[in-house]
């Protein structure tokens, strides 16, 4: 039998507002796609809809930039109020150039502008931007619990974002919240085709799933923030974002 | 209609030897999976089988290390003959520590040990290692032409490898050879959900496809080096690896 996998973008997903019940909307989307959740399925959710449902919108008019934010805003040629939020959401600023501030986010990963976004945010009610979820692992776990309660099977859930990379052009989907599958797949000790031990030993499983789902979500006005994945084989291990974060002392490119 | 994508690992793929006709084997694999190639399909091929078919095996017994290779081998705690090959395959050594040499490969990307591998290489005939294909874009184009000649439709073809990353743990599939689809998807000027111009503008499409396919290939003894992808929508642009390479002057993390 050929190993295979299928990915489906849940259709008809509405625009999300603070307080919306994302789990209920995912269940409606599964029904609209004629999908019945099965054990082992993975539900991949774009960070934006999680953040919106969790009310992570901030109106820039409510932000008073600090002196460091003003200084950094000048170097980065950005709105000092936005820079204030970037600093609040970060542990460390790694690189700065016009238009770009690369930080270690408080959640531990390296990304541009602390993941704060003002595309796909309704500006009608002011100059609003969207922060990442407070705790994406917890958001993923809550969604997983809700889906299990409704369907009786326990899917894995990923919250994903798009990140730029060192060395290579273009953003790719990466996991920022993980529940119910290994974020990192450890192959150490497994034999290669000729029975020797394998050289490459750890695979960024959750990031590969994130990239796959990202292909269907699109980045622009397509509005497909939730993808259902079936057919992925993975060992029973309840992972987390932390598995994907390279410890600073093992990172040769900071 | 729900947007969807399916990936199938071609079953029964044999161990590849130098001179094997990879296109013919892919056609047999498609038949074994009961798949008829359609326009827009993507065939994703692991670098290892391309390299093997192209005879990129080198016996370490035939390699005489230079003085710089001896010096670097000491720092990296590696076989000087392997290090000689790494240097021959690289433009620049970026970082060194025991067990690891990170280089800019002659093909332009940054990777560990110049992508030279000695897992899944039959050692019976000596201490052999496997170099990357001479020109993976050309390998992808040749496969594409052969598949079109046989099937009458023109699929896209990717040659992929697994690379480690700055900042994050775990390898992910990335494209090192591209034919028939955009490697980088340019969304500049496309509107977001609220009609404004998009912030994130370039998506590493070929790398996301590589990551998706990598999920089915496995890294160990699974022996599924070719994956068929159907359902991906992409504009008609014949891309190449070069699109994915961040110019040195735009790379803040060298």
Could you explain how this protein is built, in words?
Two copies of one chain form a homodimer. With 254 residues, the first copy, chain A, is α+β, with helices and mostly antiparallel strands. Chain A has two domains: 7-54 and 133-241, 60s Ribosomal Protein L30, Chain: A, CATH 3.30.1330.100; 57-130, CofE-like domain (CofE-like fold, Alpha-Beta Complex). Helices cover 26% and strands 23% of the residues of chain A. Chain A contains six helices and twelve strands. Chain A has helices spanning 22-32, 47-53, 67-76, 80-88, 136-151, 205-217; strands at residues 4-9, 42-46, 57-59, 90-97, 100-105, 110-112, 128-130, 156-163, 172-179, 185-186, 202-203, 226-230. In chain A, strands 1-12-2-8-9 form a five-stranded mixed beta sheet. In chain A, helix 1 packs across helix 5 (136-151). Chain A is globular, with a radius of gyration of 19 Å. The model of chain A has no long low-confidence stretch (mean pLDDT 91). Chains A and B meet through strand 1, strand 9, strand 11 and helix 6 of A and strand 1, strand 9, strand 11 and helix 6 of B. Strand 1 of chain A pairs antiparallel with strand 1 of chain B, so a sheet runs across the interface.
